[in-house]
Amino acid sequence: MSETIQLKNTELLDEVQRRSGTPVSACFQCHKCSTGCPTGPEMDYLSSQVMRLVQLGEEEEVLQSRAIWLCASCEACTTRCPMGIDVAGVMDTLRMLAVERKVTIGEKRPEKFNRSFLGSVRRHGRVFEFGMLAAYKLRSGDLLGDVGKFPKMLSKGKISLLPKRSGDARRVKRIFRRAEEEDQKR
Amino acid sequence: MKYAYYPGCSLESTAWDFDRSTRAVCRALGIELEEIPDWVCCGSTPAHATNVLLSVALPVVNLQKARAMGAPVMTACASCYSRLRTANHKVRNEPDQRAQVERITEAAYDGGVAVHHVLDVLVNHLGPEEIRRKLTRRLTGLRAASYYGCLLTRPPEIVAFDNPEHPACMDDLVAATGAEPVEWPYKTECCGAGLSMTRSEVVGRLSHKLLSMAHRAGARCIVVACPLCQVNLDLRQADARKAHGDLPEMPVLYITQLLGLAMGLSPDELGLGALTVSAGALLSEIPPATASSVEETS
Fold it and tell me: What is the complex's ipTM, to 2 decimals?
């Protein structure tokens, strides 16, 4: 007896495949990506399940998942997928879609960290760790995490109180602005 | 041998010792490094998780600068390396992407500037034999676990200077110094990478797994070639131990620091003072340089 799975629609699958340039529809649930995933134990959906949710068009479920933000981009899944699916690249696309479509972000800190990091690059052309960490802490409310390490990092010269600006910082600002404009055209 | 050197943001901050030891070792080996003037951040993981075009354009700015210098690029950071190589791959294979990137960076780029990691340069351009000739001290008795992490060998379509599942180039360099590379199964397991700040308990779990396996394999130190691996295994080591069980302290050195020691460079020239878990006690067990040890090396 066979059972037909009714797809909600293929809009999500088409969009993810187009933007990530990788054949998510080829996933046949061998679970090789999930088996080798370092952050799998912390995820609500394993990476192979994320692929399945995309195939099924379960947009809300997948875009609000914690899994897409807990992926460490280590590329083990992408390297090992027997169907040549860039699984880590799909995670990137899903993170972008989650932000664009303004869904409730399943795991808030990584998204806030990304914004703080890029804000620093946009301003200085390079990452100014101290300023980036301060911005991240204010955004995330994680004010105390790791502050015990700061004195040691300062004394060992691992973190500086002053930014090291790139001489090409203004060009970087223009690139950020244009990349965002292009993004909005989509 | 001359390279356009791309240090990247970590090598100006948390990994300044990787920068110092890379420059010192290259100088001693006759590899000329000219820093790319006004280089900019590669965007790292936050860029590729946020905006594809930005994640290609930022590395390309640096590659355009290197093109003007007429030299291949060398970088020491595994993440920068991955981003620079990925940008080349995309520019070469996706004409639309190339056109967009050229437009927003206001300059042409064909994806043709070669990008190498310092490990690739040391092992494949110079070679362990050539390096062995420059060593003055054998690190006899030092058992080291080579840890490659994620992005040095993955994905193989992008990086490809060693085997993605069982790399050996760093082990070859460790062996060249007279130290003993231990066999262990977690060479390319991930340390949690960019989740370091946001989910440090996940990084603690993964780091502890790596540290305890290295210990079980008989290693007394871990050798790395990535700034984020170093921070996660070294700066977060005490937290990992507290959360997941006690282990002997495990110094985590950059491969360039280990090589530098075997070249007779001083701890200061190699920035060894930056390590959170000191390597002092471990290194004091190694016999000092003698005439016979040099002979044995050559």
Answer: 0.94
